């Protein structure tokens, strides 16, 4: 072993390794973007007289009590059934006398207790939104043959006008109290 | 045995520094991606609920954040253990401070954008609706009606909590 020079380590693959690690970190670190449920609050009521009283059949009452139980039109309902009920109610087009006359007249009224958990409230809001989104998507597929999200703005507007989201929130009540419902 | 005999007469070999830039770049990129730009120090614990029908917040400059949750252990002495509301850096004492804060946020926007402001509520999944309702009523008072409940995207659990 009488070599004069020590062979240099080949560093050509170093860049590849660095890129590999870079890509790994790029995919694993999450830069959290802000996502959420979009909701439009009703404006402050100026006088009680102007509040419209819609027909009973057009309103789907959703109540969430302080124990996170769901009541739709006074009947205990499972959360997983809510989306179907919304679709049935809004997409009724007057065929069933118990549900809405037309999508533009359909109203969903949600009422919660002060003791309802925020998580349950979000779940209910999510299900209501899902009902509307599925209806719009079906309509988009029927009219344009594409998903609602793939339509251009004008097309989306024409669909969303057919199924306007009317989710009204009643003034809250404090029946169970804030700390009950554990 | 001579195979393993050390040859002290030769100078020490140079370590190749060709890869050093790569390593430095790698570290740089790592820190670039993992650092989160924080705009406010969170004094309350917020674990947002999950939902499927989420939309992205369009414009962050138009968005004001309201945090609701239980104060962090560090601040327990000061603020107690029941859910509180945080605006900007400070936990507020009274929910009635919200309209003034909204007005301030609105005034900070150029005039053509004042009607477009959005409020994002980042609330912990375990808080009760009472405090959220108070916030909502105050937002209606301030006529800031565009609301976004901040959530994770993911499947929701139908079988209780």
Description:
The complex is a heterodimer of chains A (182) and B (161). Chain A is α/β, with parallel strands linked by helices. Chain A has a domain at 57-169: Nucleotidyltransferase, domain 5 (2-Layer Sandwich), CATH 3.30.420.270. Chain A is 33% helix and 14% strand. Chain A has four helices and six strands. In chain A, strands 4-3-2-5-6 form a five-stranded mixed β-sheet, with helices on one face. In chain A, a hairpin with a 5-residue loop joins strand 2 (59-64) and strand 3. In chain A, helix 2 crosses helix 3 (118-143). The longest helix of chain A has 26 residues, at 118-143. Chain A is elongated. The termini of chain A are far apart. Chain B is α/β, with parallel strands linked by helices. Chain B has a domain at 44-153: 2-Layer Sandwich (Nucleotidyltransferase, domain 5), CATH 3.30.420.270. Chain B contains four helices and nine strands, in the order H-E-E-E-E-H-E-E-H-E-H-E-E. In chain B, strands 1, 4, 5, 6, 7 and 8 form a six-stranded mixed β-sheet that branches. The model of chain B has no long low-confidence stretch (mean pLDDT 83). The chains are: A alpha/beta (182), B alpha/beta (161). At the A-B interface, helix 1, strand 1 and helix 3 of A face helix 1, strand 3, helix 4, strand 8 and strand 9 of B.
Give the rounded overall mean pLDDT of chain B. Answer: 83
Second CATH tier, the architecture of the domain at 44-153 in chain B = 2-Layer Sandwich
- What gap, in angstroms, lies between the N and C termini of chain A? 79 Å
Structural class of chain B: alpha/beta
Supply Rg of chain A.
27 Å
Count the helices of chain A. How many? Answer: 4
Low-confidence parts of chain A: none
Find the CATH topology of the domain at 44-153 in chain B: Nucleotidyltransferase, domain 5
- Listing every helix as H and every strand as E from the N terminus to the C terminus, the arrangement of chain B reads HEEEEHEEHEHEE
Largest chain interface and its two residue counts? A-B, 55 and 55 residues
Briefly, what CATH class of the domain at 44-153 in chain B? Answer: Alpha Beta
């Amino acid at each position: 072993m009488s070599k004069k020079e020590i062979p240099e380590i080949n560093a050509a693959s170093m860049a590849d390794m660095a890129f590999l690690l870079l890509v790994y970190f790029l995919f694993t670190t999450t830069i959290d973007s802000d996502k959420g449920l979009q909701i439009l609050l009703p404006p402050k009521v100026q006088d009680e007289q102007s509040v419209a009283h819609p027909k009973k059949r057009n309103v789907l009452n959703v109540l969430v009590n302080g124990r996170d139980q769901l009541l739709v039109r006074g009947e205990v309902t499972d959360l997983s059934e809510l989306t179907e009920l919304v679709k049935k109610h809004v997409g009724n087009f007057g065929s069933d006398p118990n549900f809405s006359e037309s999508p533009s007249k359909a109203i969903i009224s949600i009422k919660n207790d002060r003791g309802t958990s925020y998580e349950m409230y979000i779940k209910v809001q999510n299900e209501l939104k899902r009902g509307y989104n599925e209806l719009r998507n079906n309509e988009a597929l029927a009219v344009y043959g594409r998903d609602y999200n793939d339509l251009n703005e004008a097309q989306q507007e024409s669909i969303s006008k057919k199924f306007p989201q009317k989710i009204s929130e009643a003034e809250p009540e404090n029946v169970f109290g804030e700390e009950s419902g554990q | 045995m001579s195979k393993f005999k050390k040859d002290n007469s030769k100078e020490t070999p140079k370590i190749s520094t060709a890869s050093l830039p790569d390593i430095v770049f790698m570290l740089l990129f790592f820190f670039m991606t993992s650092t989160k730009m924080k705009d406010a120090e969170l004094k309350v614990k917020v674990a947002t609920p999950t939902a499927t029908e989420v939309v992205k917040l369009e414009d962050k400059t138009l968005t004001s954040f309201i945090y609701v949750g239980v104060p962090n252990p560090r601040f327990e002495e000061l603020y107690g253990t029941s859910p509180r509301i945080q605006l900007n850096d400070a936990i507020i004492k009274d929910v009635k401070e919200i309209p003034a804060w909204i007005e301030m946020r609105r005034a900070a926007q150029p005039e053509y954008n004042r009607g477009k402001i959005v409020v994002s509520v980042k609330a912990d999944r375990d808080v009760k609706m009472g405090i959220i309702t108070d916030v909502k009523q105050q937002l209606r008072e301030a006529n800031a009606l565009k609301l976004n409940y901040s959530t994770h995207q993911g499947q929701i659990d139908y079988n209780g909590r």
